[in-house]
Amino acid sequence: MRRPLIRAFGALAVLLAAPSAASGSTLAAQTLRAAGSGARSCHAGRLAAGGGVRTLRVTARQTGLLRATLASRGDWDLAVFDAASERLVAAGAVSGDRELVEGFVGAGEPLLVQACRRDGAAATARLRASTVAMGNPSLPVQREQLVSVATPDRAARARLGALGLDPAENGTQESVDIVLHGAQDAAKLAGAGLSWTVKVADLRALTATNLLSDRRYELRAAPSGLPSGRDAYRHLADYEAELKALAASHPGLVKLITLPHRSLLGREILGVEIARDVNVDNGQPVFLQLGTHHAREWPSAEHAIEWAYDLVNAYGTQSRLSLSPSSAWV
Description:
This protein has five helices and 14 strands. A four-stranded antiparallel β-sheet has the order 1-8-3-6, with no helix packed on it. A four-stranded antiparallel β-sheet has the order 2-7-4-5, covered by helices on one side. With 330 residues, it is an alpha+beta fold. The chain folds into three domains: 1-17 and 224-330, Aminopeptidase (3-Layer(aba) Sandwich); 24-133, Jelly Rolls; 145-201, Alpha-Beta Plaits. The longest helix is centred in the middle third of the chain and has 18 residues, at 203-220.
């Protein structure tokens, strides 16, 4: 009978707001073929076409949401880059037969679609890519701002809550932070008799600056003290690829799991079980650790996956790791 070490399961899901007044534009609908396969990271950067990698260049026809799917009978991963800057637009690395990736693009932006066959019997995969316009394309793009709205009493908080604006999940006893997505949002605040101060005048510009700073730090910094040694936040595809890699490199200790229910967007949700003789099912109780229920709670997913690395790294080498017959999922 197996003595399980720990089950670790990471439930990762990202939710995006539905586009308003959307109209679609098809960019690609074709079958890709790859004779070879390999356990590579499809979204880490551009790969040379050939073998298990297929690439396609397209151009976004409208500003909005890019949506790409890859359907096959095997394990294919999918990534989309800005062909000029090599910015990662969207990526997915689940283990099932359908990849779904989404990201924001601008009209005229050149895109590189990269599909990677990892394993499985299917040498072909069906790619579909399109863009969906967001809002009114005739209006100029407006800056997103982070503002602090004065809410000195319950009445003010009630008026703010009724406006349906985008909360930043931060506040004090006398204020609530809100993300304004343009002049219309500001007009709602004014119409409700609310006052506010601007904390960040241009969130997109600040995000770009922060990403550049993070990248520079990542390049010069030594590996972190985390179990994985990572020193930057992960994208969703990073979690998916790393969970698959953990299972592939430790087949007797780590088993990849796919939840029976998909995310709101239709994406598979992956996790891992970590236990001695992991592929034997004897009905032992489990401990469940979840990560990232909400899109803005990035650290919670980091906690889950770093614990998985810690369990794998410490197994068989450190006495602090219990071998009791209970299980846990991260």
